Amino acid sequence: MAGTSLSHVIQSKLVELPRSVRISAKSHRVSASSEGRPEGPYCIYVGPLETANKEKLEALYCQARDAYHSGDPLIVDDMFDRVELRLRWYGSKSVVKYPRCSIRRHSTFADAQEDVSMVLALASTWTIFLAFGTLVCLFPISYSVAMPFQNSFQIPGLAFLPLLNTLFFVALGFLIGYPVASASAKVLQGLWRNDLAALKGACPNCGEEVFAFVRMDRNIESPHRANCHVCECILEFRTKVEQSVSRFGRQWVYGRIYLVSLKGRSGHQ
Predict the structure, then answer these.
(1) Burial, 8: exposed, middle or buried (Cβ in 10 Å; 0-12, 13-18, 19+)?
(2) What is the pLDDT of residue 210?
(3) How many angstroms separate the CA atoms of 245 and 238, rounded?
(4) Can you tell me where the transmembrane regions are (predicted)?
């Protein structure tokens, strides 16, 4: 009888432990288990990609690339591709890779990026032609406007001769200047819209820097081909176009340079 009551008292005391003690003991076990658990990998915070600067994106790209090669990736593939694409827009050298082999195409290729210096050089040349054509068109017109003031001091019987000269110079200036100015304006407009893009990159065969002007309207169906100026191998430029909001709607271009065949010096040897 006494044994039964004693066991009942012990069970009641065990059951009636305060709730705060049970919660604190449970939280203590959870915190102890969380402290013993190893922390996962973390990456550099860059914020939205559209507003992130070049230095932070390069640091994140290098960290994610090294972590991927070590077998412990930090970010998903889609995010990695977006960071790489943003760095290409910045013109970062961190995303420019060495020539390598393509398993799908069974050929060697290298990365290509837009050559802004060549675009500016070509644009400056056509700007000179535009100025020349505009001057040839406008100078005879301005000269004809000033002719009536000069003819007032001449003999009335010979007044038709300056008029013929004026009409001749206006027609000649229009025939010469207008085609030059019109063609220059079309080329400059195409350069701004990237209808004609300049690409540069390493030759997949010899590693020397090569460049080419590529017509974007024809590159999808028939990629542009050129020869390397060093090893004379045949190269194929394949481009990709992206729309950029921060460049006032101007498209920007990047792509790859594929080795088509060995020719010239390498082929003869």
Answers:
(1) exposed
(2) 92
(3) 23
(4) 119-143, 155-178
User: For tokens 């010239």, what's the residue?
Assistant: 264
Phi, psi of 130 (to 5 degrees): -65, -45
Which residue type sits at 234? Answer: I
Domain coordinates of the chain in residue numbers?
43-95, 118-192, 195-268
- At 172, phi and psi to the nearest 5? -65, -40
Q: How far apart are CA 52 and CA 50, in angstroms?
A: 6
Gyration radius of the chain's alpha carbons: 37
> Phi, psi at residue 225, to the nearest 5°?
-120, 145
Decide: pTM greater than 0.90.
no
How is residue 192 written in tokens?
Answer: 């701004």
Q: How many CB atoms lie within 10 A of CB 169?
A: 16
DSSP-derived secondary structure for 181-195: HHHHHHHHHHHHTTS
Q: What are phi and psi of 83, to 5 degrees?
A: -65, -40
Q: What angle do CA 119, 121, 122 make, to 5 degrees?
A: 65
CA 57, CA 40: separation in Å to the nearest integer? 21
CB 49 within 8 A of CB 83: yes
204 burial level (CB within 10 Å; 0-12, 13-18, 19+)? buried
SS3 of residue 162 by DSSP: helix
Query: End-to-end alpha-carbon separation of the chain, Å?
Result: 110
Phi/psi for 17 (5° steps) reads -65, 145
Q: Is residue 149 predicted with pLDDT exceeding 80?
A: no
CA distances (Å), origin 130, targets 116, 121, 142, 177, 184: 20, 14, 18, 9, 5
Q: Using an 8 Å Cβ cutoff, are 180 and 136 in contact?
A: yes
